[in-house]
């Protein structure tokens, strides 16, 4: 083992030191998520913070999570969360192993680093797409939209007047913020950011709302 380690270049050793612990953490996170102990929440570096006194702070450690909520204006499930704890760890895994393999293949370090970084960012994006799909399937399968009646939320996409079209709203449903299609009977459109209250259902998934 020591002979192999000493045979590596300094760059390869650094890449391995990045890749090995990151791989271990990612495996632990994945196992915990599969058995239901891990959380689906993540720290959003790219901003799940609404400055207008509406704050959402979420955390996703390796072994657990915490969440503090105020008057939240979420971006909904359609928001692609790339810069999360899980995403950053995935970046480090791919960056480390890609850099190690390219360095061992004899490529110049000035080409190895950007290629490894690009591979890491691609992995972050793919993981974000997968996590969004998983969360959407989980929420759609476990949530009864009837429980949204009487709850408040915010408009995500403008709702056209008199049921002439659908918009989107974010509402608190069974303890989670979810995005749903919405219509209104009001004569004026309800703009993005407006507060609403759910007054009925149209079909299985579309909410009927009015201004709060």
Architecture overview:
- With 212 residues, this protein is of the alpha+beta class.
- Helix content is 40%, strand content 24%.
- It has 4 helices and 8 strands; from the N terminus they run H-H-E-E-E-H-H-E-E-E-E-E.
- It has helices spanning 2-7, 10-34, 85-104, 109-142, and strands at residues 49-50, 54-60, 65-69, 152-157, 167-173, 176-184, 195-202, 206-211.
- Strands 4-5-6-8-7 form a 5-stranded mixed β-barrel.
- It is elongated, with a radius of gyration of 22 Å.
- Residues 38-77 have low confidence and may be disordered.
Structural descriptors:
OB fold (Dihydrolipoamide Acetyltransferase, E2P); 4 helices; 212 residues; alpha+beta; 40% helix; five-stranded mixed barrel
Give the topology string: H per helix, E per strand. Answer: HHEEEHHEEEEE
How many DSSP E strands? 8
Helix content: 40-55%
- Give the spatial strand order of the biggest sheet: 4-5-6-8-7
Work out the helix count. 4
Please give the radius of gyration in angstroms.
Answer: 22 Å
State the end-to-end CA separation: 67 Å
Mean pLDDT: 78
Fraction in beta strands: 15-25%
Uncertain spans: 38-77
